[in-house]
Amino acid sequence: MGDAQTLAKPVPAHVPPELVHAIGLTEGPEFLANPYAFMAGLHDRLPRIFYSPAEHNPGAWLLTHHEDCYFVLRHPELFSTAGATPFPRDPNNYFYFIPLEIDPPEHRKYRAILDPMLSPRAVAKLEANIYARCNALIDDFIDKGEVEFTKAFGRPLPVSVFLDLMGLPQDMLDTFVEWAMTLLHGQDRAASGRVMGEISTYLAQVIVEKTANPDEGAISAIIQARPEGEPLTEREIFGFTFFLFIAGLDTVFAALNNIFVWLAQNPDRRREIIDNPDNLNNAVEELLRAFAVTFSGRTLTQDYELQGVQLKKGDKITSILPAANFDPAVFPDPTKIDFNRPRKPQLAFAGGVHSCMGAHLARLEVKACIDVFLKRIPDFKLKDGTEIEYWPGGVVGPKSVPLVW
């Protein structure tokens, strides 16, 4: 798979040479050609746990099995999230992405601040608005007979819902998305650093404004929170706001794009969804399993042996969550999309204490998009000649999804 000696970054001495496989996860040509086939195939051709040097990020142990990924996600005392995100930060004015990079027990006090806004009951109250937005977006293009799905539907629906939740202006949507795309998919650290600065300047201003004039949004909730009777510090407020900003702009967007590529290519399966409306929730869960879009990074807090492999304190671990969702030991015939598959804990939203805060909202958004689109435009396909190209980076999704009907 790869010769450790030819790679720019040295492999730690404790890593056995036979476990070194440079697979180009998130940016190699084989991954970018068909990322889901690539990740599903890892079970057949690589050790259960292996070490992959990387060009743009630190080398890491990669996990592909559901059991191993689930174990790591559920044991933060062994596998810490501190420093889990690779985004550049000023070491002299450092901030953590909260609550992602905060381990228990402190993690809970931060998470509790927004849990009421993202609970099943709170999210259910957004359903009518989300359905209305889906319909309004489709109104703009249904008579044209074609659409660039990513720009006209896949992006504006979840991002507009998210901006309302945060209390951020809709007229900044395109700028926000551009910033997020640079951070999540760019391969240029200088560009990433520049965008981090632009976002930092903007969010610092927003925090000042919302401190003076609070609203009903998540940023105001963070500013006004008093966990354990004390307000958060300026760096805590900033890190929490920054994390939400990045986390909310690209994940549902990417998932929708992946799902609608598949729907466009599988008219019989679209019809199955349309003909079985009572099974829509199961269909959504299965599509989220098959098109998980993120990975989960951790750092070892101590030496530890996992599945017979000796790991060292400070080693980086990446759980390839999409590969875990293709684990045949948990999901028989894993590459088949089966809307009647028995429910198992799929890892599209990670798991354990750091499971995605917005999972209920994401599920509702995907459900609404599929439901409304298939009712109003039941027959569509990819534009003739389309070759799907994927973004490099830590969120898996196609660059363009041109649909015609």
Description:
This protein has about 400 residues and is an alpha+beta fold. It is about 45% helix and about 10% strand. It has 17 helices and ten strands. The strands form three sheets. Strands 1-2-8-5-3 form a five-stranded mixed sheet. Strands 4-10-9 form a three-stranded antiparallel sheet. Strands 6-7 form a two-stranded antiparallel sheet. Helix 7 crosses helix 17 (about 360-375), helix 10 (about 175-185) crosses helix 13 (about 235-265) and helix 11 (about 190-210) packs across helix 13 (about 235-265). The protein is globular and about 60 Å long. The protein starts with about 30 loop residues before the first helix and ends with a strand. Mean pLDDT is about 90; it is low at about 1-10.
Summarize this entry quickly.
The protein is an alpha+beta fold. 47% of the residues lie in helices and 8% in strands.
Largest sheet features? 5 strands, mixed
Radius of gyration: 21 Å
| Residues in β-strands, percent | 5-15%
Shape: globular
- Spatial ordering of strands, largest sheet: 1-2-8-5-3
Mean pLDDT: 92
Poorly predicted segments: 1-8
Number of strands: 10
First and last CA, distance:
42 Å
SS-based structural class?
alpha+beta
Give the helix/strand layout:
Elements: H1 29-33, H2 35-40, H3 42-45, E1 49-52, E2 60-63, H4 66-73, E3 79-80, H5 106-118, H6 120-124, H7 127-139, E4 146-148, H8 149-154, H9 156-166, H10 173-185, H11 189-212, H12 218-224, H13 234-265, H14 267-275, H15 280-290, E5 296-300, E6 304-306, E7 309-311, E8 316-319, H16 321-324, H17 359-376, E9 381-382, E10 402-404
Parallel strand pairs: 2-8
Antiparallel strand pairs: 1-2, 3-5, 4-10, 5-8, 6-7, 9-10
Helix pairs in contact: 7-17, 9-13, 10-11, 10-13, 11-13, 13-17, 15-17
